[in-house]
Design a protein that fits this description.
about 150 residues; 2 strands; DNA_S_mod_dnd_assoc_4; DNA phosphorothioation-associated protein 4; about 5% strand; mainly alpha
């Protein structure tokens, strides 16, 4: 069984490097795996799945074991099931299913990175901007969950 690696699109490589707190960058994420997992979740939330095209050499493709060790294996599986609506994609004995899970994860991450690039364009501090994005999303959910209440203004 081959070891699968999560690849990054060449046109997003520099942006991904800027998201990580490494080599003089002060990005909001500790590792490339953290940044890619966040982007994949964001891509799924936005229903944005984009094929990779050319693959970056730097940062190098990330071994799937790193995602598993950081606890992102359930995210990879969840995205695959949501995308295919087929539970057989979770098979640990099927190498093709694992390759499909990784490809789906990569595509959602690529879509999320596209969205992040757009959202963070012109921003000096990515961390602050990400917090604002997350807070806005959280408030949006709270407002839609509750009815308008004049008592909030008293």
């Amino acid at each position: 069984m081959s070891i699968h690696r999560v690849r990054i699109a060449k046109d997003k490589a520099e942006f991904v490097q800027s998201l990580v707190d490494f080599n003089g960058n002060y990005g909001p994420f500790q590792t490339y795996a953290d940044a890619i997992a966040f982007a994949a979740a964001l891509g799924m939330n936005a229903k944005k799945r984009v094929a990779l095209g050319m693959v970056a050499k730097e940062p190098a493709p990330i071994n799937l074991e790193i995602f598993i060790s950081r606890g992102y294996d359930s995210l990879v599986k969840l995205l695959a099931v949501a995308a295919t609506q087929d539970l057989s994609i979770l098979s640990v004995y099927d190498a093709i299913a694992e390759a499909q899970r990784v490809e789906i994860f990569e595509e959602y991450a690529n879509g999320g990175l596209e969205q992040l690039q757009e959202e963070l364009k012109g921003s000096v501090d990515y961390t602050e901007r990400l917090l604002l994005m997350l807070n806005t999303e959280r408030l949006k959910e709270q407002i839609s969950d509750s009815d308008f209440d004049l008592g909030k203004f008293l």
